[in-house]
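Crash report, auto-generated. Payload:
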Amino acid sequence: MKINQISLFLENKPGHLNAICRTLSEKGINIVTLSLADTQQFGIVRLIVEDWQRAKDALEAAGHIVNVREVVAATVADRPGGMAEILDVIGQAGVNIEYMYAFTFRHGREAVLVFRFDEPDRAIAALKSAGRNVLDAVSLFSEAR
Amino acid sequence: MNTQPIVENRIWQPEAECLPRPQLRALQASRLREAVSRCASVPFYREHFARLGISPDQIRSVEDVRRLPLTTKADLRAHYPLGFLAVPRDAVARYQGTSGTTGKPTWVAYTRRDVDHWSDLCARFLVAGGLRPEHTVQIAFGFGLFTGGFGLHYGIERVGAAIIPLSSGNSERQLMSMQDMRPEILICTPSYALKLMDTILNGDVPRDSLALEHAHFGGEPWTEDMRERIERGLGIRCWNNYGLAEVQGPGVSGECAFRNGMHIQEDHFLFETIDPETLEPLPDGEKGELVVTALCREAFPVIRYRTRDIGIIYADGDCPCGRTTRRMSRILGRTDDMLIIRGVNVFPSQIETALMRVEAVAPHYMIEVSRPKALDEVTVHIEMQPGLFSDSMRELQSVRDAIGSAIFSVTGLHMHINLVSPNTLERFEGKARRVKDTRRLVD
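Recovered output after restart:
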């Protein structure tokens, strides 16, 4: 139920993010979603792409340092309170969120929350027992198409 | 040659400072002979002397110094910590230190008598530059292993003036003390004086609330241009002196009232200038690397120490002050890659040592030194590499903080740490030039 996310170091300078996107586009790799965490001086780009191994190889060949991390993706209704409900479940389970970001599918009925947990298996169990929809890679990428 | 004194021409030890040159040369020769015999208890020198077939009785004139081996910082490090100690440990009265090229300092030692000499030698340049017993002196040098704080302290004490040992940093406290305690003399690095001057000229501290008349600068190179700015800005006299821990600390040479360069305390230090490439001696008047033999030191005698400082020993005859000693220029550069940052000696190799403490394989790095206002700023640019990268911002920031603390623990300086993308720093064939220094430190 876990999704592989790739992350890269990014200097906070004009053109650096574009270089990453260009490398992926040259390989015909589509970015499902992208999240940026940044300070004044540097940042981390986190990407979800379908063929993460090919993306990692291409980016490393272009001189980047690439980490692969397992994240958990869960859907929520795209309406007020949707996100609060799922955070309640995670809070009650006592699992720590290292970081998270959200995006919506093209059809727009649901939003996807992407989590990096300190204990992903416990988080997945808690979400499932609360009746939440945790996406595996296959359904995530088919929904994203 | 300046023929008019800037302040009253005063000499602390005229019997030594104004010794007629033939007598001075004879004194140097006999002290050199004694230094060579003292050095026989230091294994490094004993081995060299044996190899070169040198014994003290062969030292008859000052020129014989050229038969002796040169000593380098690497030699001191190879005998870390106290391989050059020439007396039993119980005869040592003081240890001081200076930057090593790696994580550890270079230790130096003084007997009671060494400290006693040091006091008089610092008193010489202080008195030449305006210090009187009735003065109050604020010392804004660090009191620690750095020789500047204690050396100046002893010199001032010897003259009989009052000391405010404020130590370095904290400008507000420095200015508060300068206003409330009204010292006439300030001891600090020239760049720190510029910083204090900025505050004073901004009107936050009115100039007429200060009693300042003189400043004695040391710890870092500075220029005539800086002297003019500070003298004009604060309406004081600024004085230059020279020294290095390996041969004593401050008090090796200093300016007199006529300001014709810095008088070398030749009864205690034998100076040569050499070509740093061929190591051949150069005549007075030519620019070269200064090589110093400490003639009187008991605890830590060094022979022909390669200072790595570039300077000129002047050949233009006697100074009107009455001293018979030769004079030297300001320090005009270095023959190694040592940097002086806010008065602290830093070697690029120390940064590498610090980086290896954080990550086994030192990343590519570049050291950028600038002086945006009065004080030096250092940014260390570090290329990311797999072992340093984490996708968690918190961990990445803690890596950056860990690098900053490791650099602080090795160099004693806070530097900005800038993480940069892989393969973005310049690569070098052969010797890497890892320092970009945009300061203007020589005229």
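Post-recovery validation: Chain B has two domains: 1-335, 340-437.
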